[in-house]
Lipopolysaccharide assembly protein B
Amino acid sequence: MDFDFSWLLLGLPLAFVLGWLASRFDLRQLRIENRQAPKAYFRGLNFLLNEQQDQAIDAFIEAVQNDPDTQELHFALGNLFRRRGEYQRAVRVHEHLLGRGDLSRADRDRAQHALAQDFLRAGLLDRAEAALQKLEGTRYENEARLALLAIYERSREWEQAAAVAQKLDEAEQASYSVRRAHHLCEKAAEQAAAGDLADAEHLLAQASALAPQAPRPAIDTAALKLRHGDAAGAYETLAALCDTAPLALPLYAAMLQQAAVASQRGGEALLILQRRYAESPSIDVLEAIMALGGTPMLPDDLVTEEAAVPEPRDGYIAHLSHQTSLVAASRWLAGERFAHEQYRKPVQRALDQAARPLLRYRCAACGFEAHQHFWHCPGCQAWDSYPPRRVEEL
């Protein structure tokens, strides 16, 4: 049977027409999908600009469903989940990104950094630590190290904190010598509490060498020497500190007075304290002076025949001429006699209660107040954020 070529001639145009129609249908479908994705994206962006995060998330989810290969939408969606506090959903988004085989190296590092932030915000410090360690050698390395440093300091893992701080110091982007000295002081405090005073002294010597201008290593060293019974050594350490860190004197004035009395150098210490007090009056320095039997000079308008030989308590009056101090007024009134002595106790109690909050220390970073001075704020975890002066003197 002969093949009829006329059918072939008729079939070729028909196949061409059918192929053309199929391609047009595919192109039309692709255009529809491409239109839907940008519309959903811009709709989500509009919701985000109007601070309507719930609607923005819905729009971005729709966009991701229409175009699941767009990683930027995944990043936007994950960040929105994190901002809303939906950390589990944010983790799933970023873990999904990390699981993709077609992700570029830069986007993979970005997803790893976002995942670490999810864990940090969720308070999952162990998982955050593991995620941050994977960022070593990436462009997020410095941010990761700072986050790791904060984790180790919060959990009081001073060995790991010191190692990270050393890496940051070696990067030469900022100086971390004072912070590293704090880590050594914290380790020294732990060793001293455990009874290993020799190791504690060695750590404090390292801290002093690392940050010679920082007051804490010298203060902690002097306290350790007093604990050893080396009052003379403690006095020498604090007397030298008066020259290198005079602004921190209110923190160690009482210890300087105790060391001076124990080493029989009260007169020398009194001259140092009086000179520093004249430069910068402080209630703590004043009381150290008074404990040594001295007093600041009274202003001329307060000098009378009765005050020709000043008493230690006159120091509070002298202090009031420098600063308006409820604490000084309350403590001076506590030793005075009045015509209506029967009212002394309730009045004194009211004054002491009003003055008590003024004796606190306040963090300059977060405002957290405490009755003791902290080198490391328990509220915001900032270092050296507590001024050495009481709230009343700020």
About this structure: Strands lie at 361-362, 369-370. The chain has a mean pLDDT of 81.
